[in-house]
Amino acid sequence: MINAAMTLNNDMINAAMTLNNDMINAAMTLNNDMINAAMTLYNDMINAAMTLNNDMINAAMTPI
Fold it and tell me: Superkingdom of this entry's organism (predicted)?
């Protein structure tokens, strides 16, 4: 009975560790996707700001 209980406990620990690992991997993937999305959005905002700034500089340089 002790051996059976230890085997069952070991199986439960292994299952819990596998589940935990899957949850960590899923969370890391989600986090990575969120970082990539945020970086893309931020990059688009920088590009838009640079374009706007360039247009403003060009307008200022154009003689009245």
Answer: Eukaryota
